[in-house]
Specification:
By secondary structure, the protein is α/β, with parallel strands linked by helices. The chain is 25% helix and 28% strand. The protein has helices at 20-24, 141-167, 202-210, 257-270, 289-301, 305-320; strands spanning 32-34, 58-74, 81-98, 102-116, 124-125, 130-135, 172-176, 188-192, 220-223, 227-234, 246-252, 327-328. The protein is elongated, with a radius of gyration of 23 Å. 37% of the residues are buried.
């Protein structure tokens, strides 16, 4: 018997598009599932949208990027202890995709913040940028990163709401990542590129493996710490890796079935033409072309990381010249 192998199209510097351990344990999930939403579980099959299904006239895609510019310690006069914090930059943006008009960025916003659990942390102003103090839930590294991610999510939500109010057009909003924290937004779908948890039992997971490009699974309801409707679809790909080109979409748990089916079919028409290509993007095809372009723009808007780091060092040095040394507080 001759052994063979295949190479994952994703750049190995990124986490895998599919977690191998999750694939090996498809029957194990703690999520509450209702697989009978669109079709009964026993009748699951790949679904191809009918010829009369059209993509949305206007598709907005929202995404964000973040970067830690420096790790630091925060303290207050008269207090001999210090708590860790991070100075971070993040940016949110929206790309507008319309039939016959291509894709173009329509909104970008940059935010710089200092995250710390210290009640004494204040804004930091440097020669290069100003960082607004924001409270983190705790001093640990994970808690600081969580505070940064929550702020970025809120930045994306506020930008989308503001742009939609100003544009005044009927659109569908696709947010890069899970819909969590954004379920209240109308006409909004979460777009999940990587699979770290196997939610489906083996018979229904087999339907995902059978998908051809431009096909989707039936819609089902999933509940973990929050509830949402979801479905898988496959984008065009030349790879024969398990679940290659497969993404998962999430929609509100409150949508009626007819609206869900129309939404799932419309997106299954809209997304394949936007799929990334491997010679341009190491995360193709899941990283859609408009998302890749928006990410490059947002990273550019974050500014020069070295310049910001030097400015933060200089501001800290200027502030602490006459300040006695502090005792760091253990975070573990």
């Amino acid at each position: 018997m001759t052994a063979g192998f295949t190479v994952d199209a994703w750049d190995p510097s990124y986490s895998a598009a599919l977690d191998a351990e999750a694939l090996a344990e498809l029957d194990a999930t703690s999520a509450e599932l209702d697989l009978d939403v669109e079709l009964t579980a026993a009748r699951w099959r790949p679904i191809t949208p009918g010829p009369g299904v059209a993509p949305p006239e206007v598709l907005l895609i929202a995404d964000g990027v973040r970067r830690i510019d420096a790790r630091l310690w925060t303290y207050a006069d008269g207090d001999p202890t210090a708590l860790p914090g991070i100075a971070a930059s993040c940016a949110a943006g929206i790309v507008r995709c319309a039939s016959g008009a291509g894709a173009a960025p329509v909104a970008v916003e940059v935010s710089r913040s200092l995250f710390s659990a210290s009640p004494y942390a204040g804004d930091v102003v440097t020669t290069a940028a100003a960082y607004r103090a924001r409270r983190a839930p705790g001093p640990g590294a994970d808690e600081l990163t969580l505070a940064l991610q929550r702020h970025l999510t809120q930045l994306e939500v506020e930008l989308a709401v503001r742009h939609r109010a100003e544009a005044g057009e009927e659109d569908l909003l696709l947010v890069d990542g899970p819909l969590r924290g954004r379920t209240h937004l109308p006409r909004t779908v979460g777009y999940v590129k990587t699979h770290h948890t196997a939610y489906l039992p083996a018979p229904q997971a087999a339907t995902v493996s059978e998908l051809l490009p431009g096909q989707r699974t039936p819609v089902f309801l999933m509940g973990t710490s929050w509830r949402r409707h979801t479905w898988y679809l496959r984008l065009p790909t030349t790879s024969d890796m398990p679940w290659a080109g497969v993404v998962r979409c999430e929609a509100s748990a409150d949508l009626p079935l007819d609206d869900l089916v129309r939404l799932a079919d419309s997106l299954t028409r809209a997304l394949p033409p936007l799929a990334g290509v491997d010679y341009k993007d190491p995360r193709a095809p899941q990283n859609l072309v408009p998302i890749g372009g928006l990410e490059r723009l947002l990273r550019h808007r974050l500014g020069d990381a070295r310049l910001l780091y030097r400015a933060l060092r200089a501001a800290a040095h200027h502030q602490s010249r006459a300040t006695p040394p502090r005792t760091p507080v253990p975070t573990r």
